[in-house]
Medium/long-chain acyl-CoA thioesterase YigI (Streptomyces fradiae ATCC 10745 = DSM 40063), 176 residues
Amino acid sequence: MTGDPALDLARKVLDSQPFSRLVGARVTAFGDGEAVLELDVRPELLQQNGFLHGGVLSYAADNAITFAAGTALGPAVLTAGFSIQYVRPAVGRSLIARAAVVHAGRRQAVVRCDLLTTGGDRETDVEGVAGVGDGMGVGDEPGGADEPGRTGRRETLCAVAQGTVLAAEPPRDPAP
């Protein structure tokens, strides 16, 4: 328990997803239109060339996008669709999916997600790269490790995703 009820609930929800447990995903920041999901890179998550598999990046983007939207729309949300653009191969010890709501209405939110790796041999400084939302982007100033979801580690941008998330309709009771 973190002492932050919203973050604790987000972690409980993520832990209820068997696939999220399988890949070892963790919610490290949650609230105010933002969510950060992290996972450790393991050999079984790599593709044939030794890079983190694109499906793992897509999973992380989808979940981070949905969690961020949940801070604006409430806990019952569903991804309507998302796209991902791979910038470079994902190499490193950990993957960070940092998502922020770009726009939220009553029933729909548009969310952007940056996917970054840390601890890679080929890391480059991403200072100055256009970022996510207000104050969430890689290299945004003031920035730094003191912000929620910021690690203080050098981060390499490997993909950018955008998604649309809908508030879920409550389940209907079957007619008697």
In short: The CA atoms of residues 108 and 117 lie 29 Å apart. The chain has one domain: 5-167. The first strand starts at residue 26 and ends at 31. The beta strands are 26-31, 34-40, 77-86, 94-104, 108-118, 155-167.
